[in-house]
Amino acid sequence: MRPKALITGASSGIGEAFARRCARDGYDCILVGRNAAKLDELVGELRRNNVECEALVADLSTDDGIEATAQRAIGCDVLVLNAGITHAGSVGKTPPDELAALMRLLALGVMRVAEVAVPSMVERKRGDVIIVSSVAAFTPMRKSSAYAAAKSFVTAYGRSAHLELKSKGVRVCVLAPGYVQTELMKRAGLHHVERNMPRFMWLTPDDVVEATLVGLARGRDVVVPGWIYRVWKPLMGTRFSQWLWAAMLGRGKKK
């Protein structure tokens, strides 16, 4: 019986790269996302690796979508909890329902799926949980307070789960990338980020996946892909770094 992986946000970007890698490594896959057409296309592609693959169309910003995904995650050997969006907005400017959906998608849903699926991993004494966070978890971010808070939440949850579960055969790793070449920025209308950020700060989804798997094998609780981010991480909270980041992103104090 082949091992099984469930990947959220599988229709593009990091999730799609994880799905391809899991299929190539011989995992049957459950691909979760909102775009049915893209999921079906990817399912057809991955089946050529002689693995079983299915699509689960679910919106993880809703309670129903979270619960459907959590139930399908039971019995899986690998969870890649990747679904997400980027979000920029000044404090007090985002509608409450939008903030609630953001927190379900980026934070509460991640915890719920893990809480439902991990007990079966502990019972089997094996399993991997990869939680996709962001370098935003490590630094205050002007006009991204809700996003940074959600990423801080899942990072703390994942690191604590890692500490608790590593002696029980379950590996938990938090992935905290910087800027990755995906469709997220375009979807959020943040075209200026793609224009302004230097090319050396952009990672590819495949690079991110490879770094994660290396870190997981080494027993890391957090993986920060890319040398530039590993060097910059201890300095992210400094006044100069905050000024530089805001200048590149066009998030000045005024407005």
SSE topology:
Blueprint (H helix, E strand, L loop, with lengths): L3 E5 L4 H12 L3 E6 L2 H11 L6 E5 L5 H11 L4 E4 L14 H29 L2 E6 L12 H21 L4 E6 L3 E2 L3 H4 L3 H6 L5 E2 L1 H13 L4 E2 L3 H6 L6 H11 L6
Parallel strand pairs: 1-2, 1-4, 2-3, 4-5, 5-6, 6-9, 7-8
Description:
By secondary structure, this protein is an alpha/beta fold. The chain has one domain: NAD(P)-binding Rossmann-like Domain (Rossmann fold, 3-Layer(aba) Sandwich). It has helices at 13-24, 36-46, 63-73, 96-124, 145-165, 184-187, 191-196, 205-217, 227-232, 239-249; strands spanning 4-8, 28-33, 53-57, 78-81, 127-132, 170-175, 179-180, 202-203, 222-223. The strands form two sheets. The chain has a seven-stranded parallel beta sheet, with helices on both faces. Helix 5 (145-165) links the parallel strand 5 (127-132) and strand 6 (170-175). Helix 1 (13-24) packs across helix 8 (205-217) and helix 3 packs parallel to helix 4.
* End-to-end distance: 57 Å
Strand content: 5-15%
Whole-number tally of structural domains:
1
Describe the biggest sheet?
7 strands, parallel
3D shape: globular
CATH topology: Rossmann fold
Strand line-up across the major sheet: 3-2-1-4-5-6-9
Given as residue ranges, the uncertain stretches (5+ residues, pLDDT < 50) are none
Q: Which CATH class applies here? A: Alpha Beta
Radius of gyration: 18 Å
- Percent helix among the residues? 40-55%
N to C succession of SSEs: EHEHEHEHEHEEHHEHEHH
The CATH architecture comes to: 3-Layer(aba) Sandwich
Query: What is the β-strand count?
Result: 9
**Helical stretch count?**
10
The CATH homologous superfamily is named NAD(P)-binding Rossmann-like Domain
Given helix and strand content, the structural type is alpha/beta
Average pLDDT reading: 87
